[in-house]
Amino acid sequence: MDAQNKNILDSKFICARCSFILSEPVQLKRCGHRICQSCLDTLNQNTVKCPQCQIETPQNQIMSDRDFKNNMQCLPIICSLCNWNGILIDYQEHLVQSHPNTKCNYCDEECNSINHLNQHKAFHCSNIAIECQLKNFGCHQEIPRFELKAHYQSKQHQDSMLEVIKQLKLQLSEAQAASTSMDSDVSRTTTTTDDDNFVANQLEQLQETINMLANGTAILNEETQQLGTEFLEHQNKRQGLVENTSNVKLAVEEEQLLNEAITQNLEILNQNLLSLREKIDDKQCTSYDGSFTWKIKDFREKMADAQSEKQASIYSPPFYSSPTGYKMRARLYLNGDGNARRTHMSLFFVLMRGQHDQILKFPFNYKVTFCMYDQTPQRRHIIDSFRPDIRSSSFHRPRSDMNIASGIPKFYPLVKILEEGNPYVQDDTIFIKVMVDFGDLPKTILPYALSLNPGLPTDVQQHFIRQALEKKAEIQTSKEHSTTDT
């Protein structure tokens, strides 16, 4: 996948075929390099030649690299389509939520999905800049794909081609040197002469030349033997140094492995501690009636974290529709998300994987209402609702821990919530209520239901709501009778 900062990431996180950030990485075991699963699928070959080193690897030696994928999840990412900052694990969710109708930012071609956009950029977009194939021979220029033919005729590329040819000639010369060094003019026997003396003189000169070569060879042999002896001495010393170095290296590696194991154990213990603390907190405030009142403390600190992108969003504890019902939570972007970023608070509903999902009805289609409490006696609460789009995967049965959040991106303007002394932030705390409406309450009753004292038991609140509905029905019936009499 593409990102604004892909060129400054470590090259090991970049696909050797498409030059984008690795997506579902697979490793070529013969050379150790990695490519995207989607790039591997486009090759459709029994053996795959590595785009980086040209080493061929059989299909049965190409493995999905899940550990490497997990290590990538915390990579810092700047969205290629906007200025969103975050980490890779949240990037796909951001793209789906904020850029559902994808358009190539290089050529404006419309794509029907993020995967389609990535494939378009990797292999088809004519405006995207790509590296020259001779970058290892001095041609480091990045060229738009449609200018490749013109680049191949440029002086810079031609100079790189000459460098390639020079290296090939040097390799050929070295390969032929051994086979040509012993060639002589012995084959020149086509010329004949009757002059025996001339032949004898030639033979004498040839013999002298052979003797000179023999003497020179003997001297060279003596020097070679002496150099060989010195070489063996140095080789033995070098072997000793290599053995000592290997022992030191092995000791260092063992120490590093021990430190890594200790670090991993500490991380696991910290994660378990955090998980246990979260479970304890969740148990203490779990709701089983389809509603949840979320108390958010340290509002200013959390807002500052959101504005600095340190923590863009926060989650409420889970709550349930019943002891055997849907598992849910809220997600709040204090500084906004997507098109509402830096203008509104964004409030979303998240459907979670529960223990009883097999027997529940999906897709989830019950109206969800959010209420941010006015903490002054005026009780001018901020209330907004939405009904789920059952076509969205956000409301289908969860296949992972949580579905993609969905809700109200422009819940409340930042300029108002940041006003000093506003009624919704008191003692650096805000209260947000999430209520799933399983009874399809009329919209006119919602303000009354949400204005009831949250301290009353749930059955008492429901009794008051039923009374309000009955009273409203009586008034409506009276009006109908009056109209009929008239």
UniProtKB/TrEMBL annotation:
<dbReference type="GO" id="GO:0005164">
    <property type="term" value="F:tumor necrosis factor receptor binding"/>
</dbReference>
<keyword id="KW-1017">Isopeptide bond</keyword>
<dbReference type="Pfam" id="PF00097">
    <property type="entry name" value="zf-C3HC4"/>
</dbReference>
<dbReference type="GO" id="GO:0008270">
    <property type="term" value="F:zinc ion binding"/>
</dbReference>
<dbReference type="InterPro" id="IPR008974">
    <property type="entry name" value="TRAF-like"/>
</dbReference>
<keyword id="KW-0832">Ubl conjugation</keyword>
<dbReference type="InterPro" id="IPR012227">
    <property type="entry name" value="TNF_rcpt-assoc_TRAF_met"/>
</dbReference>
<keyword id="KW-0175">Coiled coil</keyword>
<dbReference type="GO" id="GO:0042981">
    <property type="term" value="P:regulation of apoptotic process"/>
</dbReference>
<keyword id="KW-0963">Cytoplasm</keyword>
<dbReference type="GO" id="GO:0005737">
    <property type="term" value="C:cytoplasm"/>
</dbReference>
<dbReference type="GO" id="GO:0009898">
    <property type="term" value="C:cytoplasmic side of plasma membrane"/>
</dbReference>
<dbReference type="GO" id="GO:0043122">
    <property type="term" value="P:regulation of canonical NF-kappaB signal transduction"/>
</dbReference>
<keyword id="KW-0053">Apoptosis</keyword>
<keyword id="KW-0863">Zinc-finger</keyword>
<feature type="coiled-coil region">
    <location>
        <begin position="252"/>
        <end position="286"/>
    </location>
</feature>
<keyword id="KW-0479">Metal-binding</keyword>
<dbReference type="InterPro" id="IPR013083">
    <property type="entry name" value="Znf_RING/FYVE/PHD"/>
</dbReference>
<dbReference type="InterPro" id="IPR049342">
    <property type="entry name" value="TRAF1-6_MATH_dom"/>
</dbReference>
<dbReference type="Pfam" id="PF21355">
    <property type="entry name" value="TRAF-mep_MATH"/>
</dbReference>
<dbReference type="GO" id="GO:0007165">
    <property type="term" value="P:signal transduction"/>
</dbReference>
<feature type="domain" description="RING-type">
    <location>
        <begin position="15"/>
        <end position="54"/>
    </location>
</feature>
<dbReference type="GO" id="GO:0006915">
    <property type="term" value="P:apoptotic process"/>
</dbReference>
<dbReference type="InterPro" id="IPR002083">
    <property type="entry name" value="MATH/TRAF_dom"/>
</dbReference>
<dbReference type="InterPro" id="IPR001841">
    <property type="entry name" value="Znf_RING"/>
</dbReference>
<protein>
    <submittedName>
        <fullName>Uncharacterized protein</fullName>
    </submittedName>
</protein>
<keyword id="KW-0862">Zinc</keyword>
<feature type="domain" description="MATH">
    <location>
        <begin position="289"/>
        <end position="436"/>
    </location>
</feature>
<dbReference type="InterPro" id="IPR017907">
    <property type="entry name" value="Znf_RING_CS"/>
</dbReference>
<dbReference type="InterPro" id="IPR013087">
    <property type="entry name" value="Znf_C2H2_type"/>
</dbReference>
<dbReference type="InterPro" id="IPR018957">
    <property type="entry name" value="Znf_C3HC4_RING-type"/>
</dbReference>
